[in-house]
């Protein structure tokens, strides 16, 4: 046998041995027979422990402390919470596949951008690429599965007609307004011209408005209530007809382009109704996911916590931090838990 062929067989043998050794280790958890591998889980917890900003972005005010999640010691609260997420993800992935859903490049790119915005570009780029890819894929799947297909205008019009009187009565002035805020009159003129030529006002507001609060909602400011806006803005908005876009208007905040609509029109409330419909779908999805978790056959390695299958599905952390055992032999490849000397 040639030396090159012997070398090739050796490489294959090493790969097979490494794979077999990984499977011999008990899983961190199983979900309906699907294994959550211990090494994969601990690798992820180690990355989270090194990036507390990422933990904060993922869990918000309830984020656990990351102290103790170093190269050898894993924070028990963090490890239990992350294993809870991985178990839930396994259930979600099955539902995702059963529904025939597929992620698009756009889904992944928008989720990646959300992470970058949440933790900052520098922090996000310091997270290992393999873990960034996993997080983006998981969150994108959760978002798509929770939202489903966007409601059609026909469906939203049915909701509007059912609540028409209520919505109109919620705005005594009869006028709902949006705006785009920019620095210069020239920029404002460009915005007004683009909208009049057919550009989407909400998209322009989201991309170019200097008012972050309304920009996040497509420039939506809500009902034009007397005294709620500076005098020149209120006067200009009151002079607009339904669906009309203003000429550039200067205030102490900068240059505005205003869009006004009648509070009795579907267009005035379409985006708000869309948001409500999506929130309702997400709430229903969360309830269904919780029930699926309660019905699933789940086991958890006691070193990582105790499974609690009730309306607050969770894995309770163990009483002490977990110390990750290191192999006695030299690993075939560098471990992410090892630091360079």
Describe the protein's architecture and organization.
The chain is of the alpha+beta class and 341 residues long. The chain folds into 2 domains: 28-148 and 284-323, no CATH class; 171-262, Chitinase A, domain 3 (Roll). The protein is built from 13 helices and 11 strands. The strands form 4 sheets. It has a 4-stranded antiparallel β-sheet, with helices on both faces. Strands 2-1-8 form a 3-stranded antiparallel β-sheet. Strands 3-11 form a two-stranded antiparallel sheet. Helix 2 (38-50) packs across helix 4 (76-98). The protein starts with a helix and ends in an 18-residue tail after the last strand. Mean pLDDT is 83; it is low at 2-22 and 326-341.
Q: Report the helical percentage.
A: 40-55%
Number of helices: 13
Cα separation of the termini = 39 Å
Tally of distinct domains:
2
β-strand number: 11
Largest sheet strand order = 5-4-7-6
Structural class: alpha+beta
How many strands, what sense, and barrel or not for the largest sheet? Answer: 4 strands, antiparallel
What average pLDDT do the residues reach?
83
Choose one word for the global shape. elongated
Radius of gyration: 27 Å
Question: In what range is the share of β-strand residues?
Answer: 5-15%
- Topology pattern, helix = H, strand = E: HEEHHEHHHHHEHHHEHEEHEEEE
Low-confidence stretches: 2-22, 326-341
Give a short summary of the structure:
With 341 residues, this protein is α+β, with helices and mostly antiparallel strands. It is 54% helix and 13% strand. The chain folds into 2 domains: 28-148 and 284-323, no CATH class; 171-262, Chitinase A, domain 3, CATH 3.10.50.40.
């Amino acid at each position: 046998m040639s030396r090159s062929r012997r070398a090739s067989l050796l490489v294959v043998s090493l790969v097979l041995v490494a794979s077999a050794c990984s499977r011999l280790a008990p899983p961190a958890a199983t979900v309906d027979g699907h294994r959550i591998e211990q090494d994969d889980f601990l690798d992820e917890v180690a990355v989270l422990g090194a990036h507390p900003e990422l933990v904060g972005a993922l869990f918000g005010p309830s984020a656990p402390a990351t102290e103790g999640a170093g190269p050898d010691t894993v924070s028990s609260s963090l490890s239990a919470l992350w294993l809870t997420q991985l178990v839930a993800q396994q259930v979600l992935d099955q539902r995702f596949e059963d529904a025939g859903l597929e992620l698009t490049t756009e889904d992944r790119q928008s989720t990646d951008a959300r992470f970058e915005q949440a933790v900052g570009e520098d922090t996000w780029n310091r997270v290992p690429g393999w873990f960034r890819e996993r997080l983006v894929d998981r969150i994108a799947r959760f978002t798509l599965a929770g939202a489903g297909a966007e409601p059609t205008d026909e469906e939203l019009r049915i909701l509007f007609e059912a609540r028409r009187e209520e919505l109109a009565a919620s705005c005594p002035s009869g006028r709902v307004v949006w705006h785009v805020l920019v620095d210069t009159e020239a920029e404002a003129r460009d915005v007004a011209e683009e909208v009049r030529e057919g550009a989407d006002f909400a998209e322009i507001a989201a991309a170019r408005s200097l008012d972050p609060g309304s920009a996040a909602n497509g420039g939506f400011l809500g009902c034009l209530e007397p005294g709620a806006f500076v005098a020149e803005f209120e006067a200009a908005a009151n002079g607009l007809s339904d669906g009309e876009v203003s000429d550039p208007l200067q205030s102490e905040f900068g240059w505005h382009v205003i869009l006004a609509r009648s509070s009795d029109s579907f267009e005035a409330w379409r985006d708000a109704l869309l948001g409500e419909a999506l929130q309702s779908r997400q709430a229903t999805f969360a309830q269904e996911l919780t029930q699926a978790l309660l019905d699933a056959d789940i086991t958890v390695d006691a070193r990582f916590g105790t499974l609690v299958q009730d309306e607050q599905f969770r894995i309770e952390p163990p009483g002490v931090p977990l110390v990750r055992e290191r192999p006695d032999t030299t690993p075939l490849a560098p471990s992410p838990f090892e630091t360079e000397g």
